[in-house]
Amino acid sequence: MAYPYKKMTADDFNFIRSVTSPERVWVGENIDYDYYKDEMPEYGVFPPELYVEVLNKEEISAIMAYAYKENIPVVCRGAGTGLAGGATCKYGGIMLSVMRMNKIFPVDHKNQTITAQPGALLTDVQAAAAAEGLFYPPDPGEKTASIGGNVITNAGGMKAVRYGLTRDFVRCIEAVMPDGSIMNFSSNVVKNTTGYDVKDLIIGSEGTLCILTQVTLKLLPAPTCTCTLVMPFNSLEECADMVPKVLELPFVPTAIEFLERELIDIVERTLHKYFPVKQGEAVLIVMYDASSRQELDSAVTAAAEAALANGALDCCIAGTPERAASVWEVRGGILEGMKADSVAQEECDVVVPRARIAEYVKAAKTIALSHGIRVEPCGHCGDGNIHTELLRSENMSDEEWKKATHASLTELYALSKKLGGQLSGEHGIGNGRIEFLEEFAGPRMIRLYKAIKLAFDDKLILNPGKIIEFNK
Amino acid sequence: MAYPYKKMTADDFNFIRSVTSPERVWVGENIDYDYYKDEMPEYGVFPPELYVEVLNKEEISAIMAYAYKENIPVVCRGAGTGLAGGATCKYGGIMLSVMRMNKIFPVDHKNQTITAQPGALLTDVQAAAAAEGLFYPPDPGEKTASIGGNVITNAGGMKAVRYGLTRDFVRCIEAVMPDGSIMNFSSNVVKNTTGYDVKDLIIGSEGTLCILTQVTLKLLPAPTCTCTLVMPFNSLEECADMVPKVLELPFVPTAIEFLERELIDIVERTLHKYFPVKQGEAVLIVMYDASSRQELDSAVTAAAEAALANGALDCCIAGTPERAASVWEVRGGILEGMKADSVAQEECDVVVPRARIAEYVKAAKTIALSHGIRVEPCGHCGDGNIHTELLRSENMSDEEWKKATHASLTELYALSKKLGGQLSGEHGIGNGRIEFLEEFAGPRMIRLYKAIKLAFDDKLILNPGKIIEFNK
């Protein structure tokens, strides 16, 4: 089975309408262009043959059982905010949106968890927890993402330093398998050694193994106060060397980001958002949150002392919400600033060992420049996930840009590998990084990935051609 | 291939000797009886055909490539302290000990990690971290376990409440695949979305997917002070109801255990270790550790106030090491006490949602008693992992004991499932719980487990007949 897939017929359309509802099914040219792509159309624009908005797991199960029998590919879609070309119908077939499955169940205080359907928005899940005095920490940059999308891509974000990733908060998953089976992976328990850890394999599998229908997430007591510190340094190396020193302090920071002056200048120039600290070629931004003012104060004092003892030109304590906002607005404006400052962008999302950050950043600039591309690395210094934005200048032709980005990415991934890093820290592989993954992981790992994919999806009907490509 | 496996010949023995060294190979009756079983001989006693102590990954790779070609099963062995009948040669073949691969590399301060070979002891890894002012939190009861065994079984322990499981500390794994390939799963990075999360699938796979040759573990800044609280209650229900109240306080406790008076009496009677708190039918033991005395004091005060406001008869603060020791010695003596108080034991290691602990314990006693068995549940109240020890009395025949434990376990697992729990919280499936897992997980999940096993081990030569059984 698998390639080539069945081209859908009127009978197929009617079947999907019959197990859902005609007003929730669109076909052919009636499908909105938005559903042809995610936030990175560069990684593929593919029209679905049918687009359906499902209401429950039974509908998903019926659609999958049918698609399995008929050899029709199915792609599950959340909010479509992915950055890897993941949620697209590369081989046509059905796009199945779970955005109407957006129920959030009441917080379970005894188990300190919250359960939601995949289409619930991350912000709504965070707000539902906060309304009950609890805290869902994962905080990827994209606020309009769905919680299902966050789980299936293992969304990261800058608070990973203290709290970890989406993975670390997923207690259990309910999902539909490619053959239509509805299954539960783990349950609302803290520990589990019952069979293979399939739950963690599913998290981050980018919709290629099963379709999420419900997730239960761990919550924490909410911190009550927060403080941001800005530490300017004369050089990026000094800035990066400060990271392990901050992490060795008794109190673990929530976030550690870095910005180079060049990037601050871009944001100030293009967005007119002004960074409160004018000194330093590179700044480290450290955020603490705590459950008491006392605890916060001692964390902040210790970090400030460590900064000044290790070459920081200053240590600005942004203790008020306004002052902290002026820092985080510049950090949050980076992507927008770079977009305003260039014709197009290509993104490299490597993660390297924390000890190798400065080395990576320096070498990345040299690599990109050797291909005539300006590059602005920035990001999560606390976890080594450096978003390396390649910026297209006006005078580059399409062909030049394509060639230069491909050559740069090839070298950047090789650099990351050499430094003990990985290809993607949080954005995933999707359709955009398959070729690079093959090179990075090597043939034996790709063979293992394929075997794992087949263990779940023997007919290759679920989000085919993502992460790995069989059709060659 | 697979069943039946090749019976090993003198040629096979000589080949293994040639790729290792004759003085590290034992065959047939020269193999020590210890290697026929783990800590639970009840779950199977199986003689290996050959026992070899390897020194490096190249030897393991050579042995696996040969075994793969020749269809010889291989079982990797760590310290042999497992409780599920996992590290045994159920189908004969090779037992491969990694206990001579026990190197611990210097702490990597910049990345805050430690790297060790699988045969290093957990205690030695903990000590190596502590010597550098850092902290490896996972703390399963068994101190003589190997770190590889801890990783491959995802060892738990009582500090999971605050710090999580072994899984949460594994940065990356180097392993040999059944065909002899040497592979790396992730690297020393904090985040990773590069392909499928194979690393987490391997953790807890009980030696059925690959053989670990090196692990890199995350460390934390070491806490500097600790305090234990004992909260006696009139009933188990009140005791269990206190758990979510403790967890809602701003400061997360390191451990929350519970003991019923009956069990304390057994330890006091059999081991002459005396519990410092005499009141209450059930006691909650809460441990905090912190990075400052100030922080610790406010955590302890808040917990004590919450206890007294929620029905605790008292709240004993064991602030000195001696006083804390008197609490933890009784907790630590439970298994020994029960062994002294019964002819034999069978263990049930379910984990239930924290909200259902009291319900489970009550019902578990009723179930066991209905089959004429005394049961003493105890354990990790903070994570719902209740070790339910079935105790054999003197007047039971072998046949009666076998029948009664089987009937009790069947009902206990069904009870756990009904309450939203799992079959095993931390001891795993091994050979001892396969039959129960099949019932618990259901045929579709077992089919998925089998497909996953085959994705790694298409010839079924690695620790066959554990977790799942193909040979039926």
List strands and helices in order, with pairings:
Two copies of one chain form a homodimer.
Chain A: H1 10-19, E1 25-27, E2 50-53, H2 57-70, E3 74-77, E4 94-97, E5 113-116, H3 122-130, E6 134-135, H4 147-152, H5 160-163, E7 170-176, E8 182-185, H6 198-202, E9 211-218, E10 220-221, E11 225-233, H7 236-247, E12 255-260, H8 261-271, E13 282-290, H9 293-309, E14 316-318, H10 321-332, H11 334-340, E15 344-348, H12 357-370, E16 374-380, E17 385-392, H13 398-418, H14 434-441, H15 443-456
Parallel strand pairs in A: 2-4, 3-4
Antiparallel strand pairs in A: 1-2, 5-9, 6-10, 7-8, 7-9, 11-13, 11-14, 12-13, 12-16, 15-17, 16-17
Helix pairs in contact in A: 8-11, 12-13, 14-15
Termini of chain A, distance in Å? 15 Å
How would you state the average pLDDT of chain A, rounded? 96
Radius of gyration of chain A: 23 Å
Total number of helices of chain A: 15
Please name the two chains that share the biggest interface, counting residues whose Cβ lies under 8 Å from a Cβ on the partner chain.
A-B, 88 and 88 residues
EC number (chains A, B): 1.1.3.15
Keywords (chains A, B): FAD, Flavoprotein, Oxidoreductase
Protein name (chains A, B): Glycolate oxidase
InterPro entries (chains A, B): FAD-bd_oxidored_4_C, FAD-bd_PCMH, FAD-bd_PCMH-like_sf, FAD-bd_PCMH_sub1, FAD-bd_PCMH_sub2, FAD-linked_Oxase-like_C, FAD-linked_OxidoTrans_Type4, Oxid_FAD_bind_N
